[in-house]
Amino acid sequence: MKRDETNSFGEILEAADKLSLEEQEELIDVLSRRAADRRRDLLARDIRKARREFKEARVRPSTPDDILSEIHS
Prior knowledge:
This protein is mostly helical. The chain has one domain (about 5-70). It has three helices and no strands. The longest helix has about 35 residues, at about 20-55. The radius of gyration is 21 Å and the shape is elongated. The relative contact order is 0.05. The mean pLDDT is about 90.
């Protein structure tokens, strides 16, 4: 995290402390939903990339044993 981002994060935490308990809980819910949406978007992007690479024959199917053998070699 860059220095200016750290300051902003601290400011956000201070601002959140000034919210009522109900507002803090709503903020948590909103941030949780947004984080889940971002994770879902990132996963979908990774899946699209993997499918594209497979279609272009840049990767091949592997069994768990194949992967472990490659890791240990």
